[in-house]
Design a protein that fits this description.
ATP binding; alpha+beta; 12 strands; nucleotide-binding; DNA binding; 5 helices; 2 domains; Bifunctional ligase/repressor BirA; SH3 type barrels; binds biotin; single chain; repressor
């Protein structure tokens, strides 16, 4: 019913009406041996998970809440590259379907007019030298109106429909996201991260700017120089010391 145009992504689909988190189901399926390209998608999540132990608000029928299982032949250090790849794929899909041009805030927030409309969460099952599976969780605010967001996030969140001024067909966007993801993923497996990194930099808003990175171990102020080939953020502080950041919230 999704009308997919992909070769393998989304060819096994677990569609669920209501679930705590598609991420949790996908992790379980991956553990049980599900094939690459298996997709879990829900109408509603009761306990959607965000980055850094936060919640992701996922009300019924308004957004895309999905998790995709990948099995890339890469070591775990390279997994952050897939987060960045996903952000590029989702930006391309949004552009294709709505004509809107999103920005990326490192590592994986997608913004329209400075407000977040997409969150991406990647989780791994891996040995020290080999990834078994990567679960790519994608949450897209598609058709929410402002009243449908919790009050405390109304100034920082938006939906595609709010920005575009009209409702958007979710199935169409799912098709396009999977298509772009599959295309970039194959490009990545063949040619490595370089070409993806260039695309990513084209959408990135934080590079070259003064930012504050809030990490779990405290905050660092500095200039965002760019990302490394692994996908880490390079931040130069006032003493010209360069920090390599794995995970943080960026304040522009
Ligand atoms: C973020 O904090 O920005 C990441 C949010 C990721 C949300 C998606 S929705 C589908 C998948 N299932 C979850 O529980 N979380 C991810």
């Amino acid at each position: 019913q999704l009308g997919l145009k992909t070769k393998t992504f989304g060819h096994f689909v677990h569609f669920v009406e209501e679930v705590d988190s598609t991420q949790k189901i996908a992790l379980r399926l991956a553990y049980d041996g599900a094939k690459e390209g298996t997709l879990v998608i829900a109408e509603q999540q009761t306990a959607g998970r965000g980055r850094m132990d936060r919640k992701w608000f996922s009300p019924k029928g308004t957004g895309i809440w999905m998790s995709l299982i990948l099995r890339p032949p890469i070591p775990p250090q390279k997994a952050p590259q897939l987060t960045l790849l996903t952000a590029v794929a989702v930006c391309q899909a949004i552009q294709q379907v709505t004509g809107l041009v999103p920005d990326i805030k490192w590592p994986n927030d997608i913004l329209l007019n400075g407000k977040k409309c997409v969150g991406i969460l990647t989780e791994l099952q891996a040995d020290p030298d080999r990834v078994h599976s990567v679960i790519i969780g994608i949450g897209v605010n598609v058709n929410q109106t402002i009243e449908q967001f919790p009050e405390d996030i109304r100034t920082v969140a938006t939906s595609l429909a709010m920005e575009k001024g009209e409702r958007i067909k979710r199935a169409h966007l799912v098709q396009e996201i999977l298509l772009q993801l599959e295309r970039l993923y194959h490009q990545y497996l063949q040619h490595g991260f370089r070409p993806i990194k260039l695309l990513w930099e084209g959408y990135a808003v934080s590079i070259g700017k003064k930012i504050t990175a809030h990490t779990l171990n405290g905050s660092i102020k500095g200039t965002a120089l760019g990302i490394t080939d692994e996908g880490l953020l390079m931040l130069e502080d006032e003493d010209k010391h360069i920090h390599y950041i794995h995970s943080a919230d960026i304040q522009l």
